[in-house]
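INFO worker-7 received task bundle
INFO bundle size: 2
INFO processing item 0
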Amino acid sequence: MLLVLRDYKGLKAPPVNYQGSTPLHAAIALKHSPLRKLFKPIEKPKPFCVVELQQFKSADHVGVCVEIDGELMVTHCEQLTGVVISTFNEIKETYKILGFYECNC
């Protein structure tokens, strides 16, 4: 997420040294990340906004909206697969969408 926002929006943020191995670790890291203050909630998705997602009990995954051939999609990482691009319908099969956030960068 940070690399996409750095390359396309000019976000200047230190890399996150995330070493977690479970959704619980991810949820804790997301909840307490100091980078959260760089983002404001928005009503609808738009290119390069962050999508906060939940697969288990709380927010534990993020992606970034990208526009491909006029359609908004979500780029994110999947364990064992790596970086993927998913439609919103594909995202909704696995995750609950908690919100959309725009970078204040």
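INFO item 0 finished
INFO processing item 1
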Amino acid sequence: MLAQWLEQLRQQCGLTYRQMALMLQQSSADGLIRYSCSQLARVVDHPDPQWPLVHAFTVACNGDVKRAQVLWADAAHAASGTSRTSGMRPESINHHHELLKEMRRIRIQAGNPSLDQLRSRARKAGQKLPKSTLGAMLKGQRLPGSKAFKAFLAACGEPEGALRAWEEALERCREEQRKLRAQARRAKTMALLLASPA
């Protein structure tokens, strides 16, 4: 579904992979992500592409980033399965897609509780966790806020001593998203310039 949507998006905007890579390169500032045309081409063949690459592909084609994120989250969930019991250390997490996979793994290890069960567990731990916020977090629609993230971890039984490392992982993911938003703004500006008559 994600791969098909991305390829349709590229065809609709009429860009080659080389043109997309050039646009992203010209719109990137120091510290922002650049991708080659081969990397962009492989995203439609990969069952579980990384979110920064999907994001770059989408903004290069002037697509709907929110729609892309929902489709990517579905693909990531399907690829992750439910048998994984070990995952990344929070110190190694830098990207939203990595954090999302670990949140899903933590939930599975906690017995795969429903959203209502997670809310109940959070209340027992003295935390507030709105159902709508929780649903958006686990679908990958947005990064969690600090309080909601701590409530989710508490509801899943994560030890107190691990919370600081998880909070630092969340902050690194926020920084990455700030860079991606800046890149998206530059890519849109470049697309407007390329589309303007000479």
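INFO item 1 finished
INFO post-check item 1: Residues 163-195 form the longest helix (33 residues).
INFO post-check item 1: The mean pLDDT is 82.
INFO worker-7 idle
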